[in-house]
Amino acid sequence: MRAHAAVMVAEDAPLEYMEIDFRSPAPTDVVVRVEATPFCITDWLGVHGSLGIAARGILPTVLGHAAVGEVIDVGTDVTRVRAGDRVLVPATPECGRCRWCARGRMDQCVELFATPAVIGSTTDGVPVTAYGNVGSYADVVVVREIGVFAVRSGLPAEWLSMIGCGICSGVGAVLNVAQVRPGSSVAIIGCGQVGLWMVQGARLAGADRIIAADPDESRRSSALRLGATDVIDSGAVDVVGCIKDLTAGIGVDYGFDAGGTSDAVVDAFRATSLAGVVVLTSLESISATVTLPLFDLALRGRDVRSAQSGRTSFTRDIPLYTRWLETGQLDAAAMLGNRYRLGDVNGALDAAGRRTELTPMIVN
């Protein structure tokens, strides 16, 4: 099957819009026609060399790790979905068999880290892979059944596609990872799409004080509209000092890093009270490191947790997130940036890098 994709052929270069000859589905594969896919800052990092994609020897590759679309073909052994179903294709699969899935930690499913599969070839025969085994910046995706989940909703595809990226990462970090309690205090360092979904998650969790920090005034305003009680200009003041001032010198019960830098990680840690919970989501680069005070780690009770995909189980959480979108408890419209056709993908890439939009959206 021949269709278009936005292909990464080299680091620090624009994505190339080209025709791909997609392979037929293997017995456990599903072919999905993509309706919408959010452009994530993670892919901007990948294009610009921070994730070491070229060094892995998988170029050319198709980026994109969350999509909503319609199943158009299935392999002979597929039982989870069938042609005509509306589905979500997120970054994190759920094999249901590995030791992590068996322990309820689908976010660490062994298949998440599988070598990117060859999904087809260029018209002159060069093999093309799907980065993360999704590759949603395309007209179609050929993915494993374990990474496809039915979505039973008539909501816009743009809204539903965010379940597989920002919603699972941000709302999931609050509800699944930190398990924020009603009446508690929360600080969120960074108000990009993940940080603002965290704000919404903290509101849903019943947090009494939600402090959001970002250098961008428009993003601070968005945080207030979405549920933050206080905002801090992190480009102008001492973020940790301000958070301590707002909490009578104690710090917050839950500190969330959503700033995309090692400094944001440190600020989230330092802003959290004794016996508090610190949740990390930033991915600055594969080689970035963070230095935290050992005394505080060892003796002052801070509980530091990672939040890959917000520890979401898509089988469990898609109906919940969908219902919250349908009832307006989660505001997807406020999170949308501009819509881009697939051939204009580099406009979305540029917008993500310049932080001019929360969620650039590619629609087919």
Structure description:
This protein has 364 residues and is an alpha/beta fold. The chain has 2 domains: 187 residues, Alpha-Beta Complex (Quinone Oxidoreductase, Chain A, domain 1), CATH 3.90.180.10; 138 residues, NAD(P)-binding Rossmann-like Domain (Rossmann fold, 3-Layer(aba) Sandwich), CATH 3.40.50. Helices cover 27% and strands 25% of the residues. It is built from 11 helices and 18 strands. The strands form 3 sheets. Strands 3, 5, 6, 9, 10, 17 and 18 form a 7-stranded mixed sheet that branches. Strands 13-12-11-14-15-16 form a 6-stranded parallel sheet, sandwiched between helices. A 5-stranded mixed beta barrel has the order 1-2-7-8-4. A hairpin with a 4-residue loop joins strand 7 and strand 8. Helix 4 packs across helix 5 and helix 5 runs parallel beside helix 6. The longest helix has 14 residues.
Structural topology:
Layout: E1 2-8, E2 16-22, E3 29-38, H1 41-47, E4 61-62, E5 67-74, E6 86-89, H2 99-102, E7 118-122, E8 127-130, E9 140-144, E10 149-150, H3 157-161, H4 166-178, E11 185-189, H5 193-205, E12 209-213, H6 217-226, E13 230-232, H7 239-246, E14 252-257, H8 262-270, E15 272-280, H9 294-299, E16 303-306, H10 314-327, E17 339-341, H11 345-354, E18 361-363
Parallel strand pairs: 4-8, 11-12, 11-14, 12-13, 14-15, 15-16, 17-18
Antiparallel strand pairs: 1-2, 1-4, 2-7, 3-5, 3-9, 3-18, 5-6, 6-10, 7-8
Helix pairs in contact: 1-11, 4-5, 5-6
Our estimate of the beta-strand percent is: 25-35%
Number of strands: 18
CATH architectural designation of the largest domain:
Alpha-Beta Complex
Overall shape: globular
The CATH topology label of the largest domain is Quinone Oxidoreductase, Chain A, domain 1
How far the N terminus sits from the C terminus, by CA atoms, comes to: 17 Å
Helical content class = 25-40%
Q: Main sheet?
A: 7 strands, mixed
Helical/strand content category: alpha/beta
